[in-house]
Amino acid sequence: MVQTAPRPRAGDTVTSVGDRRAKGLSGNSVGLLGSAVIGISTVAPVYCLTSTLGPTVGQVGVQMPAVFLAGFLPMLLVAFAYRELNKAVPDCGTSFTWTVQAFGPRIGWMCGWGLVIATIIVLSNLAGVATSFFYLLLGQVTGSGTVADLDGNRLVHVLTCLAFIAVATAISYRGMTATKGVQYALVGLQLAVLAVFVTMALVKSRTGGLPGSIDFSWTWLNPFAVQSFAAFTAGLSLSIFMFWGWDACLTVNEETQGSAKTPGRAALISMVVLVGSYLLTAVAAQMFAGVGAEGTGLGNPDTADNVFAALADPVLGTALGVLLFIAVLASAAASLQTTFLPVARTVLAMSTYQALPPSFARIHPRFKSPGRATVAAGVATGVFYAVMSFLSENVLIDTIYALGLMICFYYSITAFACAWYFRHELRRSLRDALFKGVFPALGGVLLAAVFGKTLYDMWNPAYGSGSSVLGVGSVFVIGVGLLLLGVVLMLLMRRRSPAFFRGEVLTRSTPALVVEE
Fold it and tell me: Mean pLDDT of all residues in the chain?
């Protein structure tokens, strides 16, 4: 007779299941809606759209909506992996914890490092974006070019960035209650402004007479119509970046009502809302402005880094155009605040399981948040951005380009971990075979392929800012260097915490303990 160990039910408070340990976080403080909002907010949809619509059109032209769908596919497949792993192991360490239990401590540690360093890069980038749009918005409201030009002052820019980081850190430090209140307002504002923009762009595009406007065609959704494979992979890389961050709702699983099921459902809801918003906005913007390289055309290189700044007044008018600037600022600010959640909770879990120094495992007694880990993430982000800004603007740009490498790295490992972790369950049913094996493995393969292609492209100095080190592209040097830095830190931690790396703290396991009677 075969017996399987019972799994915790949704909503149960688990002190210890196998090797997993409670962290002391505030349980049952986030519902399904709050969890989905966290996932959407971390992605920063309005900011992603304004900064990615132009470059994507530059690569694939009118096939931009098709590339957005193509980027959604691997993310959806990985989302299934996260959902299934969360059901079995609802731990705030997510990718770190799951890959340790699937592949062992070394691969798990590096997966956790990939998530942490990717998040630090994103946080610093979001702070910079929030600062730029803050001064751009002030310039629009006051009508003063001098105020808008303050963003060009490096010292003023960096000090303002540090102020944004400090505020976001303080809100995250105060726990999930403070986080939810801010996010409902900021995410609601983003989606409402996007809805208004899409509606007015579609209405105006159908009136005719607009320079560059084009009629909708179903061929826009055909990814095979992209002119070259190189252009497709470049556009796909941009598309994958646009979906990064939805897994933040999984990192608060120990604070969520129904921790085994709710976070996975929230992740899928976030993905659907995001892909819907992206497709509608892409189609509406393309119909209104076209893909030309002049004027308001989406292919104009002069406006590629901020498409909404060029389209705000033509689409919404002078009175409402400022709302688009507010929405971009709100998007960056909201994502800056919620992006602290995954990095702080990953560090908390790694510390709890002795993969990092124990001081990061401290929970604030009042706010029930990982206070020490949150502050450490804020300090690391501020130092990273300040150093990179004063070191070289090219280095800062290339660091952002290296982000895609980190994202594909830890997402693909997590997807493969799902298929391996559930390998003994895949023959039980068709559902188990698909959602625990085939879909996650396929998602892992797709992201691993993008990782390999990106790594190859990064070797060329022309990738990114055009800088090089000894003839090798600086993006490659930064991306690979950050991963190698993780290896060095892992070796140092192995000397300090040998028990974890011997597999004595968090062991490799399978979801069901099989006992023969």
Answer: 84
